[in-house]
Amino acid sequence: MEADEETFEPDYEPEEPIPENDTNVRFLPKMCVRINAIKGISMSKGSMFGKVVKQTKGLVKVMVGEDELDVYGKDLEQLMPDPGDKAKMLQKTSSESVFEVLKYDSDDDEESVYVKNLDNNEESTVRLEHLCRVNM
After folding, report:
1. I need a labelling partner for 99 at 20 to 30 A (CA). Which of 33, 64, 81, 124 fits?
2. How far apart are CA 75 and CA 35, in angstroms?
3. Of 78, 81, 101, 71, residue with least CA distance to 32
4. How confident is the prediction for the chain on average, in pLDDT?
């Protein structure tokens, strides 16, 4: 007697598919991040901090102490840099270069900062929310 395919139920729970990173945000190696949840499970006692190892689609490998954790990109929050910090751009369309944050742009209510691209020494202004601190 053949099993009815419509009533077949597997005896295991399939893994949830990895959500695609549907925003323009990317996480690059050495970015400092705050982990708000791990695989969709909220952190009940606050959040953890870590350093990005790599990103594959919507899943980001983050080093926390001696451990590597796989975290959905949607569950990460970047750490904003301060003047003197090194940073990388979060936008997928931007350079992967490292920037040095020079100072806040006082004409823009400190929502933008002056940065220097360490690859070519060019200076420009960038929205602070588009940067993530890196730990070299």
Report:
1. 64
2. 6
3. 78
4. 82
